[in-house]
Amino acid sequence: MKEVLAYLEKHKETHLEELKKFLHIPSVSTDSSHKNDVKNAAEFVADYMKEAGFDKVEVQQTEGHPLVYAEWMEAGPDAPTVLFYGHYDVQPPDPLDLWESDPFQAEIRNGRMYARGASDDKGQVFMHLVVLKAFMKTNGSLPLNVKVCIEGEEEIGSANLYEILHQQKEKFAADFAVISDSGMVANDQPTILYGLKGFTGLEFTLKGPDNDLHSGLYGGAVKNPAMAMAQLLATMKDEQEVVQVAHFYDKVEPLSEEERTLIKDAPGEDYPASTGITQTVSEAGYTAKEHTMARPTLEINGLYSGYQGEGTKTIIPSTSTAKLTCRLVPGQDPTEIQDLLVKHLEEHVPEGVTLSIKREPLSAKAYKVDPDHVLIEKAAESFAETFDKEAVYVRMGGSIPVVEWIDAIYQIPVVLLGFGTPDDRLHSPNESFPVAHFEKGMNTLVHYWQKVKDYQQ
Amino acid sequence: MKEVLAYLEKHKETHLEELKKFLHIPSVSTDSSHKNDVKNAAEFVADYMKEAGFDKVEVQQTEGHPLVYAEWMEAGPDAPTVLFYGHYDVQPPDPLDLWESDPFQAEIRNGRMYARGASDDKGQVFMHLVVLKAFMKTNGSLPLNVKVCIEGEEEIGSANLYEILHQQKEKFAADFAVISDSGMVANDQPTILYGLKGFTGLEFTLKGPDNDLHSGLYGGAVKNPAMAMAQLLATMKDEQEVVQVAHFYDKVEPLSEEERTLIKDAPGEDYPASTGITQTVSEAGYTAKEHTMARPTLEINGLYSGYQGEGTKTIIPSTSTAKLTCRLVPGQDPTEIQDLLVKHLEEHVPEGVTLSIKREPLSAKAYKVDPDHVLIEKAAESFAETFDKEAVYVRMGGSIPVVEWIDAIYQIPVVLLGFGTPDDRLHSPNESFPVAHFEKGMNTLVHYWQKVKDYQQ
User: Fold this and answer.
1) A341 CB contacts (<8 Å, ≥6 apart)?
2) In B, residues 100-139, which contact A (CB 8 Å cutoff)?
3) Which of A143, B212, B222, B441 has the fewest CB atoms below 10 angstroms from its CB?
């Protein structure tokens, strides 16, 4: 292990330069104009695995973006097999004018690597690739059997991965999985993430007149679709942030006193300081920590109607549209919740406008693993040895659908080793990732692979 | 008069071609990138007046777009002076993809001239210019003294005209004014427009976090500005279309029984048929006709927050913005109403977001003239002689601020001779103007100038 750590130290500048190359590829999966860039990012990962000495490296074509697969299975039949999953696609960078540097020209400022994807997920994926290569270049082997699965559609719902995992179960079968696509609760604070929220969503449009109308001539005869949208959205949540969609909370696993204590002990984020809001706002009866970690949410992600340009335009808009997503907790079924949303909209749409709904096809249940599991304990130990701190245990508000699918298909533990921080600005302008976490985190992984090489299911 | 009518008939093709040239100039006043086009449109008008033989033709520079002025005062001291006002600027054409032909390549289809500005207001302005030229070319004179004032900022609130009218009262002083910037209640149905609504507006933004946030990590701690906007807007009108802003209706001139009868007798528009809405929706206690003509309105013209692109983006938006305008009726003061809107927003803004407001600087009171005034009667006669139909008397929901200013400064009657139709699609894609109205309407004007040449205040 010492040699592997020394190798990492020796080549650390090179690894940062290689990461920059990876970040330079604008692999925006949701935007069809970037299809070739996404493919190039897949090739980058595949080439790296080949160069590391992995077997069966393939850029697997799908109906969407490619999936990169590689394996090294020579640790022997007694050694466990880990499935390492990550994604090489990234969120759109917009709004571009708010970035201080080009989102796809990675640069290091104040100890952070700035680029879209630096934290979510390329920085963290690349940590794993470098560590695996370090073992291979140093020892010519890995401590355990490793299957690598890096996809290009996580930001758009992983539709093809879902199909592939179900159709090719044997190929991806393992004893446990490891994913690094989440974050620590604070900079330099190792965090065991033992739960994720689920996800469901939809987009809907209200239509009034066939065209935008002159607001003077038609105001008073026509239901304004923008006002109708406001009235409709206002029925979905009350002023105490309680979702008003009937039966939304029916199957929610209640928050136990034990968990409330665990959550209370976990470090919180000073949201006004970190985000610029004037005050935190959360569901009546729950703290912001409890709500972000363990209560479901309903959020409008986009809302638009009518004229948005310079100056005034006195129209009644023809349509209005809202994009809405919910984060779910254990107990809630995504399809059921989506049905409840649809029913609520249909029952509350104001008179004078017509409703059309586009359901988000992909979704995920929430996920929870036992914090006392040996693989979780080993992770906490590895963190303690490299970050010199005890880990905290948290559930997080984000969703990683593949975690739920792996759980459903294989019933294996999924260990979420996140190296991000609250300042990383995921999904926002000026995303970044601390170089210190990139470096210390790779050491954590080296320790971890060593510790789990004798794991038996 | 016969010779003038004959001249118009003889040169009708030429006049349509000249109108097309006028329409080809994209004089979009609200868009600073069209500043030169606006100037060219002003020059077009000035050149036409010069060619018609008018005196003192000037393109008057302002702090914004130019004002075109011309006069012919040789009808003698006993003859009345009319101030003809119009505007050569137009609304933005967007959304462009909904136009069937280029908005600035005028073409005639099915008896209609299609172009942005064909009805509002270039088609109608040009009718007047052609008629004045026809008198000058035929008789070498006009039946009365005429002052022509064609501005380039009507679509953006006429800020500089307001200043000029107040600073140069003598220059524009007249015995009455004529404006053709409105429409008939139906195709080929002469309409006496004896009232207009006033206008006020504002734009406001709610800000939550400094940046868009990851909805999984921050949902549950942060008030979503899009939901806050929906909740705030929903407080402004109830489901019966009654504005909920305190004191909004306090000074509204009540609708008398006589007026309700007048309105009932005026032809209505089949709104579902003409606009595509499923049903009309109007203020509780009032019909759609009553509400559009004689009750105040509050309409959202634009609304936007967060992600609007292709696919999903799981963010809590940083901000949300709404553009809102009100149409006012006699009794309401625009500045007072704007103050009430501001007060309402400040009192109802949800917790966790901050409010910033941008007041629309220009506004107008409502306007009403006595339907029995002799100048109104003469207009009805002129219509009857050229359209072969009795005129109907209506109040309209649109606003023309300059009407209110002329009323306030000069206390002279303003005669609204509108030649537009409900199918013209003002402010919308595929705006058009019937060629038949262009031609018959010019005849109406010829009759009218003859009839009013002996008018004494």
Assistant:
1) A200, A202, A245, A324, A326
2) none
3) A143
Query: In whole angstroms, what is the distance from residue A453 CA to residue A144 CA?
Result: 5
Query: Per residue in B391-416, is it b (16+ CB within 10 Å) or e — as a string?
Result: bbbbbbbbbbbbbbbbbeebebbbbb
**Partner residue opposite B221 with nearest CB, options A32, A221, A280:** A280
Provide the strand spans (E) within B125-184: 145-151, 176-179
SS3 A195: strand
First to last CA, chain A: 24
DSSP string, A18-53: HHHHHHTS--BTT-GGGHHHHHHHHHHHHHHHHHHT
Question: Chain A, 19-78: which have a CB under 8 Å from a chain B CB?
Answer: 30-32
* Helix H or strand E segment including B164: helix B159-167
Q: Which residue is closest to A422 within chain B, CA to CA?
A: B217
Best CA proximity match to B254, nearest among B281, B289, B294, B284:
B294
pTM of structure:
0.78
Using DSSP's 3-state secondary structure scheme, residue A293 falls into helix
pLDDT at residue number A396: 82
Of A229, A352, A360, the CB nearest to B312: A360
pLDDT score of B312? 82
Q: Would you call A276 and B314 a contact, using CB atoms and an 8 Å cutoff?
A: no
Name the residue among A297, A422, A426 with its Cβ closest to that of B220: A297
Confidence of residue A256 (pLDDT cuts 50, 70, 90): confident
pLDDT band at residue A329 using 50, 70 and 90 as cut-offs: very high
> Which residues 264-323 of chain B have a CB within 8 Å of chain A?
269, 271, 275-283, 286, 288-293, 295, 297, 299-317, 320-323
CA distance A33 to chain B (A): 11
Contact indicator for B85, B406 with CB cutoff of 8 Å = yes
Cα dihedral A262, A266, A270, A275 sign: negative
C-alpha torsion angle, residues B137, B140, B144, B147 (rounded to 10): 70
Angstroms from A260 CA to nearest CA on chain B: 15
Give per-residue pLDDT as tens, B301-347. 999 999 998 878 899 999 999 999 999 999 999 999 999 999 999 99
Length of chain B (residues): 457
State the DSSP string of B285-337: TS-HHHHHHHS-EEEEEEEEEE--SSS---EE-SEEEEEEEEEE-TT--HHHH
Nearest-angstrom CA–CA distance, B159 and B162:
5
Nearest Cα neighbor of B44 from B7, B63, B18, B62 is B18
DSSP state of B43: H
- Comparing alpha-carbon positions, the chain A residue that sits nearest to B348 is A239
Q: ipTM score of the complex?
A: 0.78
Give A443's DSSP letter: H
| B289 interaction partners in chain A (CB closer than 8 Å) | 221
DSSP H/E element including A4: helix A2-10
**How far is it, in rounded angstroms, from Cα A142 to Cα A131?**
10
Q: Does B423 touch chain A (CB under 8 A)?
A: no
Pairing of strands B367-368, A392-396: unpaired
Q: Which pLDDT score is estimated for A222? A: 97
